């Protein structure tokens, strides 16, 4: 598994106590703050090719990051 | 069937050391043999040590005493009618009427030798708990005041007013305070603490409980030297009994007072009789003297406000509370009020406990009550107050037994131990012994005591050997001054007292021979 | 500079507002109440003779030299133990006192060797000094009497001797061992004249002595003396500098003869240590001049080639050209670097500046990534800045101390001594640790609660504690209302039954009642202080746990005053500093995000370069990118990633994949095996700069000797940047600090000049706090309001399995330091010649392992072999080892798991199996399953 997918999923679990919208926003903010662009690109690539490998919250965060 | 005869055989360790247990056994055997039921009570000692083992038989006339009884003579005594108080060459008559006892004023030792030490009924029957009951009725501050007004001073040696010490502890705020009893009785010629603990332990417990009541302490410790196994056993059993009787614990005599008591055993160091070294030892540390200030009354055991008093001080308290301060203060002279428990020892015909009001003169005590030397030779020197006390020459025995008079004579009353020497004593050897004792028992903390005592022995040896006697005498004098002025505690500070008194009164003993 | 002699006022300072005025020899002096006569006299300029007194120890009153006369008092009281009282009139000199003092000295000297001229303490001996001061002219006792001259010298300790014949039995060593260090290894044996200092009746080396040096420091004579002084003689000059070991940051006087370092002596004015030290800082400095040090730059084309020594110009231009070449082929982002927490703030700063400005990217990270990055994240989220809240001194005001995932007596010994002193005074202790660390029970210390949790369950435990605080009504409502935000959301979360102690009992292994009691104690005992270490951060939920502790502290109002706080115990000397200096890929100096246009603008203007607004790669990301191919070159400043980072196989694969690995270090370390350029670094004895310790204290590091490599590290970095075409030049490191101060609001008031003047400062140091800030968040949090953050417990992926049924956790020991590059090159190996695996007797029994057996330790990623030591410090199912020796390679077995927020590796939880090592089987073959027993589930 890509380290980025794994990490995104790990981040996602940390925010599961929040409502999904807020969680996705928080995850996206975290990734924006701490991830180098090529890591984000890698995550986007996996969202494209294997979306099911991602936690739904992480998927939603990725959508926000793209947006 | 006839009622059993009550027979007393002391179990005080002084009596045991001369065969009291064997005597007791023989008495039971003989009683069985002759078919006389007896009730054998193991009491404390009456303090007439030359009569031990002193067997007492309860008769209509009173308690008739026989002593000293050797076990081999029991059969003979029983045959002669001991159980009926019959006459015999060992019969001393009615014990209470012996002048030696009758002329004492026994407050502290009132019950010692009279009662069964571990019988709570006996204790109550002989006036026990009257002091505590009164203390529980008074406000705590009044209890302190009572002790202050009684004039009671520390019996351990320093003679510090007990009431002032208690007041300091009472006035020092703190959620936890202690009462510690110094029962590390190590002075030569002293045994009163031991005899009290073995002969009337409840008195000490009562005294400590009153102290706790007065200062607001919750826990107490009795620090007993390891050389006193019988006292340790008796105290521990007495504490168990007291707890069972509700005299100790969470709600003492239903008053709500909470106080508990524990025995701790020393490890053979004389210095642990010094109060701060004792506290260190109680804390589980090496018995080393603390610098004062802070004083134990403010920063004592585990750093908490602590009453530290000697056995005799605390054991005097119940009587003070029971009879009132005035009754106690009426005894004694000058600033030495109440009674002191003197202990006659050494080369003396009639050794033992002599409790009397302060003020009797030393000569009277030694000659009239002590009967002079055991050897029959003239008295040459008397050491009062333990191994650190001064040697008094025969000519100086007209001294009233009173704190300040002794200080004025360059001596000290100390714990009331009196050791007598006849004219064969070598006073240079005694001076050397003082230094040697200090060298042996110094805790090793301060330099004057740790190194000075060893050098003191060496210098005295040189003086006696005739090596530069003037120079060495000057050096010894300087050393004594340094130890007196510079030592951390009384151990090093008082060691020069016997040395200097020997030099002063017996200078010829120090010339080379 | 000559030898710095610090004044000794005889007894410790007494705090307190009340003062009294006394007269000493006619001179009035006003001192705080409780001050000793001796100290009052010293403060008025009058030194009373003394031997057993020293101002680091409570008065003892044993030597009896300091006797004085006091009007209205009998006798001659000792001035050290007599407190002043108002109006007291003291005489320190009189014929009588002179005679007494001479008498005391006469006694001392009658039992002391008369070899002053050949004695190692000649010139530095208080006994000698006092003999002179009191005018001793003769010893009438002679020298033939009883004495201790035949006492044997104990030379067992590698660093100091105990020459018993010279002992004056002042007990200073014994008291220092107890009062200052808190080890109680020494005692006085026997009594009277036979009294002698004894290490529990054993040789020092066989005793409980931890070789902290406090006894040596306290000894007034040659009795306890550094071997280096015995061998070399008395030093002649001192340089005050800062220890380069752990994050306590002790100040030392480096004492030298010329440029030869004779000894390191803890500095009384050091804010962090106040005159105390540990075995590493005090004695283990030999590595700095060890022959293994490389002093010349070296390069090689391939890592299979021999190293080729070159001159600095060659090395620098080679490096610059290579880096630029790689960037031209693979892009600007293909290179990056790692700063070191072992180097100075100035050296770190220039490396991150080189990367951001000269490399033109943000691929800079620091070794704090693998230790305290979760602290950075967690404390920033909750409090607003990445730093411990207190100064070390604060612990003296704590009423309950909670130590979580830290082992201060080994890792931070000098701070541990402060903490132990406070606990001995009565503060309560809660230890949260899978291991029964020494603090749980040691002389005069006992934890009220030891929450012996299963590794990896920190968050569950802290949540449960907060749950108790909340549900039992122990929240400090006033503090929360005034000072915090987002409380209700958090409270709703934490009150959920799944966070209750009973709910997590089975998971954590901590009995619910014990946990409840601990929570109540922390919340209600007065000042509650939390101290934590890598046992908190090095987990997959490290950041969550940091926030969990912050939540707990805020909920109980334990922030913003003396005696409370949340405090990371930093591993390395300059972890705090390297983080402060903008070493993280997303942050510029002072923890400001690179995306902040205003902040970036300030830097761009000052640096004359344009900076990227996007975060760069973190260390593990660099490794991943290297293996994947987009990251081609790395500049490693003073960190041995091949040994210290987890999953060694992965790290070495990444290093091997790169075209250029530049290592700047003292030694050819494990990472250097994969390097193409080796740039020799300078030891702390050669550095000129600052370190920032765990309490944010900026301490000066002063050069004791010139760089043996010919170049300062900051010069090397500036020259590489220059060679890459980016102008960077400093004439002196103070200019670097000036630049830091100009760019960083929290450092605005910091300069070498100020540090030299006032010793040290704790940031923030600026116009609001010109002398620094010992305690943070006093009036408000850095972020305004303290923020409660819900902290769900998410278990690690690392689980024990049938194949790997045990959990390995790792740590450090007192005598060794991290990867051991320094301490292994000192006498400290005497205490720890090898890493061992501690295993519970039960776990050993079922595997047929006996104490001392060679065993194989394997995880799903690797295996190594080491010696087993049976120990019941861990619960059944947990094994423990250290990572000080490269031969052990403990990180061969640690995994790629990391903290979700910061990628800090999960060193503390690895599922492993342990089995007897077959005589001939090499470690690599150890994973053969016939060797390792499989446990039935």
TrEMBL record, chain A:
What name appears for this protein in its UniProt entry? Formate dehydrogenase
Which Pfam families does this entry report, sorted A to Z? FdsD
Give the source species: Micromonospora deserti
UniProtKB/TrEMBL annotation, chain B:
| UniProt key word Zinc | no
Q: Which residues cross the membrane?
A: none
Xref: Pfam families:
Complex1_51K, NADH_4Fe-4S
Q: Which InterPro entries match?
A: NADH-UbQ_OxRdtase_51kDa_CS, Nuo51_FMN-bd, Nuo51_FMN-bd_sf, Nuop51_4Fe4S-bd, Nuop51_4Fe4S-bd_sf
Q: What SUPFAM superfamilies does this protein map onto?
A: Nqo1 FMN-binding domain-like, Nqo1 middle domain-like, Nqo1C-terminal domain-like
Record carries keyword Transferase = no
Which keywords accompany this UniProt record? 4Fe-4S, Iron, Iron-sulfur, Metal-binding
Gene3D superfamilies per record: 3.10.20.600, 6.10.250.1450, NADH-ubiquinone oxidoreductase 51kDa subunit (3.40.50.11540), NADH-ubiquinone oxidoreductase 51kDa subunit, iron-sulphur binding domain (1.20.1440.230)
Stored PROSITE patterns: COMPLEX1_51K_1 (PS00644), COMPLEX1_51K_2 (PS00645)
- Domain NADH-ubiquinone oxidoreductase 51kDa subunit iron-sulphur binding spans what residues? 428-473
- Molecular function via GO: 4 iron, 4 sulfur cluster binding; FMN binding; metal ion binding; NADH dehydrogenase (ubiquinone) activity
Which family, according to UniProt? Belongs to the complex I 51 kDa subunit family.
Spell out the protein name for this chain.
Formate dehydrogenase
Q: What species is given as this protein's source?
A: Micromonospora deserti
| Taxon lineage | Bacteria, Bacillati, Actinomycetota, Actinomycetes, Micromonosporales
UniProtKB/TrEMBL annotation, chain C:
4Fe-4S His(Cys)3-ligated-type domain residues are 96-135
Locate the 2Fe-2S ferredoxin-type domain: which residues?
18-96
Highest rank taxon of the organism: Bacteria
Sorted keywords for this record are: 2Fe-2S, 4Fe-4S, Iron, Iron-sulfur, Metal-binding, Oxidoreductase, Repeat
- Cite the GO molecular-function annotations of the record: 2 iron, 2 sulfur cluster binding; 4 iron, 4 sulfur cluster binding; formate dehydrogenase (NAD+) activity; metal ion binding; molybdopterin cofactor binding; NADH dehydrogenase activity
- GO cellular-component term (any): membrane
- Residue ranges of the 4Fe-4S Mo/W bis-MGD-type domain? 236-292
InterPro entries under this entry? 2Fe-2S_ferredoxin-like_sf (IPR036010), 2Fe-2S_ferredoxin-type (IPR001041), 4Fe4S_Fe-S-bd (IPR017896), 4Fe4S_Fe_S_CS (IPR017900), Asp_de-COase-like_dom_sf (IPR009010), Formate_Dh-H_N (IPR041924), Formate_DH_asu (IPR006478), MoPterin_dinucl-bd_dom (IPR006657)
Q: Please give the name of this protein.
A: Formate dehydrogenase subunit alpha
Organism whose genome encodes this protein: Micromonospora deserti
């Amino acid at each position: 598994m890509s380290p980025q997918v794994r990490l995104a999923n790990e981040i996602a679990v940390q925010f599961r106590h929040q409502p999904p919208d807020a969680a996705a926003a928080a995850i996206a903010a975290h990734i924006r703050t701490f991830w180098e662009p090529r890591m984000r690109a890698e995550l986007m690539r996996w969202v494209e090719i294997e979306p099911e490998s991602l936690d739904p919250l992480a998927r939603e965060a990725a959508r926000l990051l793209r947006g | 069937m006839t009622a059993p005869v009550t027979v007393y055989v002391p179990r005080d360790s002084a009596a045991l050391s001369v065969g009291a247990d064997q005597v007791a056994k023989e008495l039971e055997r003989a009683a069985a043999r002759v078919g006389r039921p007896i009730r054998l009570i193991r009491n404390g000692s009456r303090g007439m040590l030359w009569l031990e083992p002193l067997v007492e038989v309860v008769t209509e006339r009173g308690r008739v005493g026989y002593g000293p009884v050797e076990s081999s003579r029991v059969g003979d005594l029983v045959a002669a009618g001991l159980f009926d108080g019959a006459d015999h060459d060992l019969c001393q008559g009615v014990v209470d009427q012996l002048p030696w006892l009758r002329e004492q004023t026994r407050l502290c030792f009132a019950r010692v030798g009279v009662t069964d030490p571990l019988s709570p009924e006996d204790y109550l029957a002989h006036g026990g708990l009257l002091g505590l009951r009164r203390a529980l009725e008074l406000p705590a501050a009044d209890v302190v005041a009572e002790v202050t007004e009684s004039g009671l001073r520390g019996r351990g040696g320093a003679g510090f007013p007990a009431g002032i010490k208690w007041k300091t502890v009472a006035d020092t705020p703190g959620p936890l305070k202690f009462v510690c009893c110094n029962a590390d009785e190590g002075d030569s010629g002293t045994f009163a603490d031991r005899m009290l603990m073995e002969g009337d332990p409840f008195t000490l417990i009562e005294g400590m409980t009153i102290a706790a009541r007065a200062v607001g302490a919750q826990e107490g410790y009795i620090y007993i030297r390891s050389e006193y196994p019988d006292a340790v056993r008796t105290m521990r059993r007495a504490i168990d009994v007291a707890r069972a009787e509700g005299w100790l614990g969470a709600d003492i005599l239903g008053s709500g007072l909470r106080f508990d008591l524990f025995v701790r055993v020393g490890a053979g160091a004389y210095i642990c009789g010094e109060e701060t070294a004792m506290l260190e030892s109680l804390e589980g540390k090496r018995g080393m003297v603390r610098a004062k200030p802070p004083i134990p009354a403010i920063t004592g055991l585990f750093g908490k406000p602590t009453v530290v008093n000697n056995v005799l001080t605390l054991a005097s308290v119940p009587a003070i509370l029971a009879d009132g301060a005035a009754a106690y203060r009426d005894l004694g002279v000058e600033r030495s009020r109440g009674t002191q428990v003197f202990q006659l020892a050494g080369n003396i015909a009639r050794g033992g406990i002599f409790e009397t009001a302060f003020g009797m003169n030393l000569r009277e005590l030694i000659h009239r009550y002590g009967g002079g030397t055991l050897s029959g030779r003239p008295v040459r020197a008397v050491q009062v107050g333990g191994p650190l006390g001064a040697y008094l020459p025969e000519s100086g025995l007209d001294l009233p037994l009173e704190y300040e008079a002794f200080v004025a004579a360059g001596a000290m009353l100390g714990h009331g131990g009196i050791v007598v020497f006849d004219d064969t004593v070598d006073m240079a050897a005694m001076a050397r012994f003082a230094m040697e004792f200090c060298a042996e028992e110094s805790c090793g903390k301060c330099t004057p005591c740790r190194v000075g005592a060893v050098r003191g022995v060496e210098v005295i040896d040189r003086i006696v050997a005739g090596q530069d006697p003037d120079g060495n005498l000057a050096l010894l004098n300087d050393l004594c001054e340094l130890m007196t002025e510079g030592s951390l505690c009384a151990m090093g500070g008082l060691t020069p007292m016997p040395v200097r008194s020997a030099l002063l009164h017996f200078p010829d003993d120090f010339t080379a021979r | 500079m000559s030898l710095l002699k610090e004044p000794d006022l005889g007894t410790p300072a007494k705090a307190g507002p009340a003062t009294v005025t006394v007269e000493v020899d006619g001179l009035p002096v006003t001192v705080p109440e409780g001050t000793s006569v001796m100290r009052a006299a010293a403060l008025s300029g009058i030194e009373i003779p003394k031997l057993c007194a020293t101002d680091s120890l409570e008065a003892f009153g044993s030597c009896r030299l300091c006797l004085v006369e006091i009007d209205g008092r009998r006798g001659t009281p000792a001035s050290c133990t007599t407190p002043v009282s108002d109006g007291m009139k003291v005489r320190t000199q009189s014929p009588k006192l002179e005679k007494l003092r001479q008498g005391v000295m006469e006694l001392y000297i009658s039992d002391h060797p008369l070899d002053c001229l050949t004695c190692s303490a000649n010139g530095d001996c208080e006994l000698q000094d006092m003999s002179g001061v009191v005018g001793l002219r003769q010893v009438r006792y002679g020298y033939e009497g009883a004495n201790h001259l035949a006492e044997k010298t104990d030379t067992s300790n590698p660093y100091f001797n105990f020459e018993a014949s010279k002992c004056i039995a002042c007990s200073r060593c014994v008291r220092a061992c107890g009062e200052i260090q808190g080890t109680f290894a020494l005692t006085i044996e026997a009594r009277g004249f036979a009294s002698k200092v004894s290490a529990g009746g054993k040789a020092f080396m066989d005793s409980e002595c931890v070789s902290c040096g406090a006894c040596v420091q306290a000894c007034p004579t040659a009795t306890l003396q550094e071997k280096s002084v015995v061998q070399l003689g008395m030093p002649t000059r001192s340089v005050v500098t800062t220890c380069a070991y752990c994050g306590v940051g002790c100040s030392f006087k480096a004492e030298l003869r010329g440029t030869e370092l004779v000894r390191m002596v803890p500095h009384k004015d050091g804010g962090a240590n106040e005159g105390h030290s540990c075995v590493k800082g005090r004695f283990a400095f030999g590595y700095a001049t060890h022959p293994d040090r490389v002093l010349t730059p070296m390069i090689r084309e391939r890592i299979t080639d021999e190293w080729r020594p070159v001159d600095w110009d060659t090395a620098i231009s080679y490096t610059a050209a290579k880096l630029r070449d790689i960037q031209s082929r693979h892009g600007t982002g293909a290179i990056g670097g790692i700063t070191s927490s072992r180097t100075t703030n100035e050296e770190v700063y220039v490396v991150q500046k080189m990367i951001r400005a000269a490399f033109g990217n943000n691929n800079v990270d620091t070794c704090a990534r693998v230790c305290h990055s979760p602290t950075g994240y967690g404390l920033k989220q909750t409090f607003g800045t990445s730093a411990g809240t207190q100064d070390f001194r604060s612990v003296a005001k704590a009423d309950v101390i909670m130590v979580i995932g830290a082992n201060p007596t080994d890792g931070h010994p000098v701070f541990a001594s402060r903490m132990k002193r406070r606990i001995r005074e009565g503060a309560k202790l809660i230890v949260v640790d899978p291991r029964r660390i020494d603090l749980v029970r040691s002389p005069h210390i006992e934890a009220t609660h030891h929450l012996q949790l299963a590794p990896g369950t920190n968050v569950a435990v802290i949540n449960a504690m907060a749950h108790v605080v909340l549900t039992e009504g122990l929240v400090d409502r006033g503090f929360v209302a005034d000072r915090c935000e987002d409380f209700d959301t958090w409270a709703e979360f934490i009150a959920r039954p799944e966070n209750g102690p009973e709910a997590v009992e089975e998971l954590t292994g901590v009995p619910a009642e014990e946990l409840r009691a601990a929570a109540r104690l922390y919340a209600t005992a007065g000042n509650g202080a939390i101290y934590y270490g890598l046992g908190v951060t090095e987990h997959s939920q490290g950041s969550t746990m940091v926030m969990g502790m912050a939540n707990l502290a805020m909920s109980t109002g334990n922030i913003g005053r003396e005696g409370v706080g949340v405090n990371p115990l930093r591993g390395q000397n300059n972890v705090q500093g390297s983080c402060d200096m903008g070493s993280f890929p997303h942050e510029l100096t002072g923890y400001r995000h690179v995306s902040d246009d205003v902040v970036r603008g300030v830097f761009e203007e000052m640096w004359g370069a344009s900076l990227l607004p996007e975060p760069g790669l973190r260390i593990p990301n660099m490794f991943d990118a290297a293996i994947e191919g987009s990251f081609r070159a790395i500049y490693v400043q003073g960190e041995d990633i091949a040994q210290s980072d987890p999953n060694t196989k992965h790290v070495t694969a990444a290093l091997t994949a790169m075209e250029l690995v530049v290592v700047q270090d003292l030694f050819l370390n494990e990472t250097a095996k994969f390097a193409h350029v080796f740039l020799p670094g300078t030891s702390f004895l050669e550095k000129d700069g600052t370190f920032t310790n765990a309490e944010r204290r900026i301490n000066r590091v002063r050069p004791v000797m010139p760089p043996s490599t010919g170049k300062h590290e900051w010069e090397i970095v500036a020259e590489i940047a220059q060679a890459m075409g980016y102008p960077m030049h400093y004439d002196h490191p103070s200019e670097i600090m000036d630049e830091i101060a100009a760019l960083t609001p929290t450092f605005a008031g910091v300069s070498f000049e100020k540090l030299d003047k006032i010793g040290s400062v704790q940031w923030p140091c600026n116009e609001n706090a010109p002398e620094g800030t010992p305690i943070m968040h006093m009036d408000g949090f850095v972020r305004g309001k303290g923020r409660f953050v819900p902290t769900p417990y998410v278990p690690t992926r690392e689980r024990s399995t049938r194949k790997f049924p045990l959990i390995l956790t790792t740590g450090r020991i007192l005598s060794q330091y991290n990867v051991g590059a320094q301490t292994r090159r000192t006498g400290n190996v005497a205490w720890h010649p090898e890493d061992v695996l501690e295993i519970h007797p039960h776990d050993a029994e079922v595997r047929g392992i006996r104490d001392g057996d060679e065993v194989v330790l394997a995880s799903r990623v690797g295996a190594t072999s080491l010696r087993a030591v049976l120990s019941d410090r861990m619960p059944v199912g947990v094994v423990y080892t250290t990572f000080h020796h490269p031969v052990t390679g403990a990180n061969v077995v640690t995994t790629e798991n990391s903290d979700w927020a910061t990628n800090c590796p999960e060193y503390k939880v690895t599922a492993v199996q342990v089995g007897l090592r077959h005589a001939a089987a090499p470690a690599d073959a150890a994973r053969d399953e016939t060797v390792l027993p499989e446990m039935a589930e």
